[in-house]
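protien #1 (seq + structre)
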Amino acid sequence: MEPYSRVGPSFLCQENKSKGGFTAPLLLSSSSSNHLQPPKPVQSRVLGFLHQSSENSPVSMAKTQAGAVNSGGRTGVRIVVAGDPGTGKSSLIVTAAAETFPTNVPPVLPPTRLPEDFYPDRVPITIIDTSSREEDKVRVSEELKRADAVVLTYACDDHRTLERLSSYWLPELRRLEVRVPVIVVGCKLDLREENLQVSLEQVMAPIMQQFREIETCIECSAFNHIQIPEVFYYAQKAVLHPTGPLFDQETQTLKPRCVRALKRIFILCDHDRDGALSDAELNDFQVKCFNAPLQPSEIVGVKRVVQEKLKEGVNERGLTLTGFLFLHALFIEKGRLETTWTVLRKFGYTNDIKLADELIPSSFKRTADQSVELTNEAIDYLKGIYELFDSDYDNNLRIYELEDIFSTAPECPWNEAPYNDAAEKTALGGLSLDGFLSEWALMTLLEPAQTMENLIYIGYTLDLSSAVRVTRRRRLDRKKQQSERNVFQCFVFGPKNAGKSALLNSFLGRPFSDSYVPTTEERFAVSVVDQPGGNKKTLVLREVPEDGVTKLLSGKESLAACDMALFVYDSSDELSWKRTTELLVEVASHGENTGYEVPCLVVAAKDDLVSFPMAIQDSTRVFTAVTVLLYISILIL
């Protein structure tokens, strides 16, 4: 039974039209003795189905490379074996652990442990056998929910047990919301009649198409010791080196996050920034990831292979980004996911293809009324990034240029709220330099760790401690009546339909809209404000929906980050004014009671409409010891 491959080496690099197998030398082998040896066929969700013969076993091959791969910090893998009665679950487990076929096995085995040196990743495995009795169904469900991987068995000599995978077991896993890799195992291969021999590909392809959680399909015989170790090897491998984060099974391509991470790694290794990895840079990369150098002849062989398959993969300076990605596409094709995972983990990536938390400064020691701002060093760096990617120098960073800046991050951090609609856009729909820096200022104010993470992704190489600073306490600023901060935050309160959103839109230079859409979630608007003397400050307006005020004020420190509270009312609606005064009293009282008093500003919106009969000056004024009320009528059109 020949191996079946789902993908060819062209699935990533569209320019490569070859669909055939690839057995040329590969870079990044984990031992110097076989740097340029083609990997043995490994069958999985990416590659298809496992060969029936145990010759050239991937387990025996992998054991020669023990300790060379990175397990992602896992200390154990829990594999649950389930299936219909009589499908060989217990015999499979005993034969794998004892390397001998049992003559008698109990109905259900106790937990079985495979030691850390059993497989090359050196991570111990705990195998959980399960009962097939109806009265044990609840316990089986509990075990499945705790699994890191599930092995589902069927009997090769009983087609009904195979049908039960689709009719019961796989739907049951979905019902239980068990979202882990599934290995489908056909046991008792020695009992299948010769005249019933069929292609495993033909049998399993429709099932794998319907149930994408199936990672690998394999047939085995405990009695004849055929592919028994491989079963749990592939189950462990699916957990330690998962396909899902790297490969999109629907489109048969590397996932965007994987490509973005590999692009960042390529740029970090391209020390002279010439767009290609020279021989020396390739060798440095090899040593960093696999602790073994490449010989000059091996480097020549690698580049020759890439160039034969993908001309633009190599130029006169060395291996290009396209060629680098192409090599990793080949590893996926050959089932060598552990190679790509080793590279990713060496550069600090987790299974989510994001940098590990410990690499990102996330603890900013500060009180509630202190904030975090970018330093001049970081701002200068970001200005340089803007100029580099604003290719036509028109002070208009287009969407594709912004995406290019963050092409080495998992995604653009400003695609979602609260950032996606927070900054002023140019007439062409892009970001000016001030708009670009405003987005960074807002992200640093709200999520400083997110700023640090994305600075790393886009190539900030200075000491990260020089990128941000913690400001002086607001309480002290007010006492001294001066501040050295560059970013100020204003909370915007008001009743429904008072004009809060229109005020934020006007602040961002957007036209007035007659259509009213009530705000249900907090919204931010941020822009650079010119000051006398040529200085610039960044102002953040935070719109708080009327229904969200009670929730906001439920926290003692909710006003600590507020520099000013702005209250908007509809000047043509007396009820709007009354509700605004109520909100003002609530906010001012909360500030006084918690020690986080804030100056307040009242804004009369819709001044173009007829004012309500009772004049503003005759209305009750609300004062507190720490509240300053200013009445300003503005026209928002």
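ok now protien #2
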Amino acid sequence: MALSLLFTGTFFFLLSAEVLEARLEPYDSLYDNGVQAYHRGDWHSVILFMEKALRNRELLRRHHISCRLHCANHTGGFSDLPLNWGPVQDLTFFQRLLERAECLKRCEEEKIGAPSDFYITSQELQLEFNKRSPYNYLQVAYFKIHKIDKAVAAAYTFYIANPEHMEMRQNLEYYKMMEGVKESDFRDLEAKPHMHEFRLGVSYYTDEEPAPSIAHFEKALEEYFVADLECRSMCEGAYDYDGYNYMDYNSDLFQSITDHYVQVMNCRQSCVTELASQPGRDKPIEDFLPSHLNYLQFAYYNTNNYTKAIECAKTFLLFFPNDEVMNQNLAYYAAVLGEEEAKLIFAREDINAYIRRSVLEKELLYFAYDTFGIPFVDPDSWTPENVIPKRLREKQKMERETAARITEEIGNLMKEIENLVEVKNKETFDLTRTIHEGGPVLFDGVNVVMNSKILNGSQRVVTDGVISEEQCRELLRLTNAAASAGDGYRGTTSPHTPNEKFYGVTVYKALKLGQEGKVPLNSALLYYNVTDKVRRVVESYFRLDSPLYFSYSHLVCRTAVEEKQDGRKDLSHPVHVDNCILNAEANMCIKEHPAYTFRDYSAILYLNGDFEGGNFVFTELDAKTITAEVRPQCGRMVGFSSGEENPHGVNAVTKGQRCAVALWFTLDPRHNERERVQADDLIKMLFSPEADLFQEEALEKTGKPLPPGEANVRPSDSESPSVTPDANAIDKQLDNTDSVAAENTDSPVEHVQGPPVDSKSKTEL
């Protein structure tokens, strides 16, 4: 007896060990292990765990699909149940359900070693996989172990789903520059076969190569129905309680069955959207399945295959029977081929069956919507109107009309509120301007030497010590090396007076020149940092509640033309206001285009004082009465609000060169200077913390350092790694093809309105 028990225990132990060994390891734990390995810098383990997590997730999906399709095909259906339904038939119905459930349980345990509920994962983890985050980690790990082709593929795969990821885009640009990297390395490892074939079809179609486009569109249709079947199978999962506590769910038997099955049908209908969606795109391709047939009918026409053209046109009309252009094309094809022969050509049966099934599901879903209030959003634009119950149609019509009316009323109300807020803000802003100035200047060595009271106005300040003498000299050297004549003034070298020449350079241009090695990169960085320092001083001193954004930044020098200074009476820069058009005769300033009405604060940081003339002046609105005058010198800054309270100008520079950094700011982020954003991105690229590591790797491999900038375009080792290729290079759009004229005007197609028309709108891939 004891021996028997021992044998039995040993048998079950071995059996359990075999089951555990056969059980598919959950991909959530594999992913967590991969993340931990990443933080340890264990790159081989990162690859092992992340690759296995991706593989097991796909295996799990495949096993679910396989089991559900197998059990649907190998257990009894319900079509043979008798019409005179009764208690026995109820039992027969549920017998079939039990048989399928048992089949699924057995199949899943055989294939994955555990019931499906063993592999339930969190929504957060599902989101990470949908965002393709594992590939983000993989691209860094592969890069670290110098498997560049795999790093490129992982990076590209991640970027396709995250095209806004700037760091990954930089990584891909870096990979493109690496020796040995091939174009074929940039591949999407998660590409859907049906979408891949469709994109190739569109590409060939756009290039006016109908024969290969037909092959790819037909293959795309074949793959579409495979993907549709798999997607629908994956909808047969557990009931989603949609946020409320399942403990409170107390529906009876048939209501519970209804709730779950309606949810399954809703999911199946959403496969239309799922299959038409592309990673990284907000919207799916509209009318995706019908568009295959639209392309095909015209492609077959261009290869003179009228039989197939008619078949595809008739199939397209199953979706949109009243499409005028397609009916015209069909009439043309039938006339060319022969009316009698055309009648014997029918729409494709697989798509006909697809539509019948979809319409029946929609009828049930709309019934559930109308009767039980279970929401249903129809993903198709081709759904026949009679599928929707009349009461629901009328309700939806009323809701649309009500929504349109409410939207219009809200729009009108918002306009009124905006006008009131604008008036109120102006009143409040004008009041607080006189109250709020006098805040700290933030930096040691920066001193306020004149305030609004001394300068006889409001919202004015002069500070000294913003930058040092050495920094002034460095920026002057940068100006002489980088500035271009007329820069910032549309190339006009003497924009304000013929008696002076103007030279300037923007922050972004200086950084680009530094990246190219044409000017010292540190000087360009100093220029960038100084402008931000001035912004912070202005923002703090005037006690602004909202941040300032750069509207325009310009390092500019004005040089006196020696032979034109005798008897000079003009100004270097005439009196003006920065955000409105000054009418000095009327003592008013008009805030309208072409003035930069969005500018709120201005500042000038001087780099030198070794010139004659060139003093900065504040005036009254008459542009004549000077209220204050400021003598430029190295490190001195004049800051002021940009409105009509601060007309200003610059006296003539009669000898030498006057250089300054001129800055304009806005409180409106919508007017943030584009070049400043580009400069910010360039700074991140040029001065990332990993630049030194990149240089070391370059020296190890080539014996040469990377040029400035390239050393920093690399995968980030931050907590979440990064990637990004330009998906636009892959995208092609469909141009409308001109109508093709009939070659023989005496042919039997004279009664047709015209030759076929390529009616498709552009397909954005």
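Residues 27-78+95-172 form one domain.
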